[in-house]
Every structure is written in structure tokens, then in C-alpha cells.
Amino acid sequence: xxxxxRIGALAEGARLHLEAWRMLRRxxxxxGVALVPFVTSAATCTAALVxxxxxxxxxxxxxxxxxxxxxxxSLVSWLWVAPAxxxxxxxxxLLFLAASASAIVLAFLSASLLSAPFLDALSRRVEAxxxxxxxxxxxxxxxxxxxxxxxxxxxxxxxxxxFFALQGTIVVVGFVVPGGQVVAAPALxxxxxxxxxxxxxxxxxxxxxxxxxxxxxWVVEHAPVMLGYGGTAFxxxxxxxxxxxxxxxxxxxxxxxxxxxPPVV
Length: 265
Description:
By secondary structure, the protein is mostly helical. 81% of the residues lie in helices and 0% in strands.
């Protein structure tokens, strides 16, 4: 894939969120099932923001603990000490923002776990509006709907546990290995960006019975689209007000992502 096509794929992944937002505004049939995820994400996001503010100093100390302390021993040494301090300060700020954004993402994943049956119902309605039908690997009817709701909660728990374990491993490595924080923070961001499409397209993929190994290959095969989707979502988490609204948008755009780029089983 050439550079121009990669850029186009990145833009396409980002545009899915805007398309999903327009659909949510336009289709009143989506409003009822989107309400619970909205309220849940607003509560968990607020809690995460409060935690980041309260523990800002320890968090900043953790991500910048690897940095050297640059001292000026003479007037001449300030010629290089001042720029070095400024550079380290900028790097520290970027690492702190990355860690804070990761905390907010964790809050959204917790909200996804709490409201999984409603998110699955929202994904179903988006798929019905897009395709005119809903593809389900299992049976239909009311019993099938109940099974799908239970399955959505179970699979969301598994995905969240996997993500927490992966992120926890990166944090531990960053804490134990000297200088590991400089690698851990960007790794947390990259893993999160790639996990977001895997997580929010999952409701559609679960209904089709797509194995997890196939989903991992699917993310890698469409990496530019996934990075456009996940990167835009990650940045949106940092915007106050927008992040409260974003959970229903994520599931709707994730459904569109799975429909536009169906994995090959």
C-alpha cells in the first residue's frame, strides 16, 4: 500500500466516527438504547478525570522518574541546561497526557462492560439501518436476543480483562525496568489505539462468530484504517464534553467498521 493510500485509509477510519455521530443524531430509533451507555460513560469518565486530577503529582512522577536532573554549575552551562530542561519538560508533559488519556480509556472500557447488553442492542440497530437486516450466527427470536445479551456481557468482560492485563504488564515493565517509562507510555497509547477498533467492532463480530485469532489478523491487515479509527477515538477522549458522548458513537462506528471491512473467517 502506497503512502497516499495509507493516508486515505487513515482518513477513512477517522470518518467513521463522524458518520456514526450523524446517524445517531438522525435516527431516533437509536436514542433509547444509547441513553444507558451515555449515562454510564459520563459517570466513569468523570470519576477517571477526578482521579487524574487528585493523583496528578504521583502520576507525573511515575512517567518522568527516568529523566535525569539537569543542573547548571555556571552561567555558561545555562546555554545548554535551559534548552535541556525545556525539552525534558515537554517530554514529561506529553508522557503525562498519554498516561492520563489511558486512564480515561480504561474508564470507557469499564463503562462498556457495565452497559454491554445495551451496546449490543445499539450495534444491532445500526446494522439493521445499514444493511436492512442483522446477521446472527446463532438462532433468532426472543431467546436468541437474551443469549446475545448474555454473550455480549461475557465477551466484553473477556476483552476488558485482556486489555487490563496487557496494559498492566506494560506499566509493570515501565516501573521495574530503569528508563522503561519512556517506552511504556507510547506503548500504552499504541496498544490502546489498536485495541479500540477490536473492542467496539466486537459486537458485530461476536454475532457472526468470528474467532479472536481472526480478529487480531483483521486488525493487522487493515492497520491504517484501524489506526485512523483508534487514533481519532483516543484524541476525542481528551476533549471534555465530547468524551461523555463518545461511547455510543464508538459502538456505532465500530459496527460500520466491521460492515465496511468484514474479516475473512
